[in-house]
Amino acid sequence: MAEEVLSQSEIDSLLSALSTGEMDAEELKVEDKEKKVRVYDFKRALRFSKDQIRSLSRIHENFARLLTTYFSGQLRTYVNIQVASVDQLPYEEFIRSIPTMTILNIFSVSPLEGRILLETNPNVAYAMLDRVLGGRGSSMNKVDNLTEIETTIMSQLFERALENYQEAWGSIVEIEALLEEFEVNPQFLQMVSPNETVIVVSLNTTIGEASGMINICIPHVVLEPIIPKLSVHYWMQNQQPKERNIEEYESLQKTIQKAQVDVKAVLGETDIFIEQFLQLQQNDVIRLNQRIDEPMTLKVDDEKKFYIQPGQLKNQMAVQVLEEIREEEEENE
């Protein structure tokens, strides 16, 4: 248990009260011995630490930025999305907090178990729909009688947005987000038990002149396998170079060094007509575009890499590398 540190003035005041009789030392001892009781609500079980909540907040702040860019390009209007809060609460409490008729996207995040719920306020959803259909982004609320066309457009819009969710989680775990259901009534939706702890990420969303909330509900069962990764230690480890990455790099480097490439020493080149080629006979001389006092070129996979000169090594023809051909020189040729 953390001990409370008193300042010098507080210590002086305490000693003064004890000396004057305002406080009794025996009473203080009795109070210390008494058991301190803290109220705990089992319906609101806290299963995530503050450190893990901060990690989830960072992930969804990145998602909010990606989503802002995505919707700005799709809707061609002013879009602003920011994380408002990240809380843990019972699933039943979350369901009661959202409108009775709203836009609900339920998607899986393989290989993690369970499903995630993306709830969009009708004001925001209809502003998006109006922009996609060529309107100014006016908002209306008629969720109870969505047409098949409206349902298809909205579900496709949010389905493509899930690619940004995959990218936001990329630093922690590789997931594949897949839209499974599209609902409008939360009462018909039972993802987990009512008392199950869920993480609710609320995003303040502005689309043109309309504004509202986008809520992401993540059950505990989804995050349970990756909870150890939601810590500052893991994030700091990821930011530092790892020995494993160095070993993988060295292994890859050794493998590439063993790869075979086609190397050609080019004596010279020239262009002739097909007719001349067909009439070539023994002892004919072909004039090349290479001067005798100029270095030859060495090609690696048909790309000029080095200037060379011909020679002999142990009774075999060989070439000596003079210098590397730089890209600027190759472009000027």
Automatic annotation (TrEMBL):
Pfam families xrefs: FliM (PF02154), FliMN_C (PF01052)
Subcellular location: Bacterial flagellum basal body; Cell membrane
Keyword Iron-sulfur found: no
Domain of life: Bacteria
Keywords: Bacterial flagellum, Cell membrane, Cell projection, Chemotaxis, Cilium, Coiled coil, Flagellar rotation, Flagellum, Membrane
Ranges of residues in domain Flagellar motor switch protein FliN-like C-terminal: 255-325
Membrane topology: Peripheral membrane protein
UniProt main location, coarse: other
Parts forming coiled coils: 242-269
Family: Belongs to the FliM family.
Protein name: Flagellar motor switch protein FliM
Organism: Halobacillus salinarum
